[in-house]
Amino acid sequence: MRDRRHLVPYLLLLPPALLFAVFFIWPLITLTVISFYDYSRMTGMVEVFTLKNYQRILLDEFYLAIVGHTLQLAATTAVLTVVIGYPVALYLTVARPRARAAVIFFILSPLMISVIVRSFGWVMIVGPKGLLETLLSAVGLPGGNILHTEAAVLLGLVNVLLPFVVLSIATALQAIDPAVPLAASSLGASPWRNFLSVTLPLSLPGVLSGVLIAFSLASSTFVTPAVLGGSQFKVLSTMLFQQAVVLQNWPFGAALAITLVLIVLMAVTLQFRLVERGRYKAVFQ
Amino acid sequence: MSRSCEPPRSGTAAATRRTVLAGVGAAIAMPAVVTSPRANEQIVLASYGGTIETFMRNQAIPAFEKETGIKVVYVVGTALANYSRVLATRGRPEIDVYWANDLSHLGGKLQGLYTKLDPALVPNLQNVYPVARDPDGIGVASNVSGCGLQYNAKKFQEAGFAPPTSWLDLWDPKFKGKVAIYSIGVLFSQDFLAMMTRILGGNEKDIRPAIKKIRELRDSGNIVAFANSPAEMDNIMVQEQAWINYNAQTRALALIQGGSPLRYVQPKEGGTLFTVLFDVVKGCPNPTGAQKFINHMLREDIQTGAAAALGYAPVNPKAKIPAAFEGVMPSNEAALATFVQLDRATMNKELDAWTEVWNREIESRR
Fold this sequence. Notes:
The complex is a heterodimer of chains A (285) and B (366). In chain A, helix 7 (150-174) crosses helix 9. Chain A has helices spanning 2-34, 52-58, 61-94, 97-108, 115-126, 131-138, 150-174, 179-186, 191-220, 223-229, 236-246, 250-277, and strands spanning 38-40, 44-46. The longest helix of chain A has 34 residues, at 61-94. Chain A has a single domain, classed as MetI-like fold. Chain A has 285 residues and is mainly alpha-helical. Helix content of chain A is 75%, strand content 2%. A two-stranded antiparallel ribbon of chain A has the order 1-2. In chain B, 42% of the residues lie in helices and 16% in strands. In chain B, helix 3 runs antiparallel to helix 12 and helix 7 (187-199) packs across helix 8 (208-219). Chain B has 15 helices and 10 strands. Chain B starts with a helix and ends in a 5-residue tail after the last helix. Chain B has 366 residues and is an alpha/beta fold. Mean pLDDT of chain B is 88; it is low at 1-39. The interface between A and B is medium-sized, with 27 and 35 residues.
């Protein structure tokens, strides 16, 4: 009887574990193997070991710049999302239930629309003769058409990543024992001091996981940079799409994909390190 | 697809995994096809969506099914998606016949993906222009379209511009911020690059002068947008974001028919020509049915129908083209000869290098 009960957690884990193995681990292994294959247009994919796909990424300024641009886009998105999302999360902790429900619904609403529809919605707003340009030109201002710029991509990314970050920070804020900030106040801390020394550090786990989610999703997103950034906006995801789908160069496409996976993995490791070793280690326990 | 994703409810782990794997395999191999038990009685056709799908489903396929009793299973995809599918299932092909473009035809031919056509099964091979026939007898061009300049006649008139006559007009400073071109992933841009090598006195073997010239076009500020697809290009032109571009006749004719002020001109250096081709997949379940279908698609009446419905010029000289398209659409061998035959073999071989150079030099941010 006891033994059986012991098995229950594993049995519960089995379906997701199988799905994970079949749809994630196995494709990832295949992808890694393919990334070391050779390819030429005349022969197709050749199953011999070569490092040239990775050399092409790591030894070439053009591709390094694309890796750098991907990192920069993801980091900027993450920071912007946290800066915009933190006040919202703070508000959620003090709001009345009704107002809170309304704000959460509002924040979650971008996720209810498919990414393609949402992106084209943004095109109509920031594109030529779009809402933004019409409004700005009505008051005599130029520059309303920001389609195919970094700003447009950031706008689209922050819009969709905000719910992840807000909910993540709000969860951390709600876990703070209300007695702690109260104690700080009673000891004479100003509200500002109270926030900086008590609330903010205690909410760091939520901030960090929000940053991680935003960074990972922003670095691997395809539709938003493709639609709002245009074809001159090059990040790893759009480059690997071109290699894999347009040129059928699966090995090089796979190498670009693995590079992307490694970037996200590095972000996860970094976050883990901060959590385990950082100054605020105690907060995370 | 979703069925195979459901968590297993019973059975041992190993059996479950096998079931899931089999499901995954089937789902990846061919999500859109449900194979009927009488495989002989059907062919699987991979083809395009949009107006082509409408034409095929409403006109071409019913006539074929009625005549032969062979059912056509229609799989929709872009040229590249269909090619990727044929390539991915080469070990166990499930597509019998598909509509390739110049690139996927040549690429697949080099990799041995297609079979030779049997003239006994495709008697209409004798009735098409010689240029439509493949030198090795693998596949056949079924329809062709020219590619030249498209411009907004209304805007040109308002601005007092004369209609364009040359590919080099795109560089004219008066078109600053008014030119749209395609991304290199779209065939028309590859053709544009190849055409520019010719105009600059060279050929496809060396693209450097053409790249330099097109880079000047970008740096001049004339280019307002790079379109990622013909549909996006249509939007850019219809919304008057750009006034002039290079485009396929098929697109231009469709817009003219819809009453748009856009017009097509054949540049004086000649237009380029691209084809769509039927290829029978090697080792496919029903090669005989596939070839019968190709023969059907080369018939006079179907070719006439495709010209009217799709704006694709026929390869069968007996087919008729709509009066409205005369003067634009090539309707005989002499008209076809006014187009430049690009060196498709070199273009296919060098596509990766061309894409790389174009990415670096042209389609990146200044």
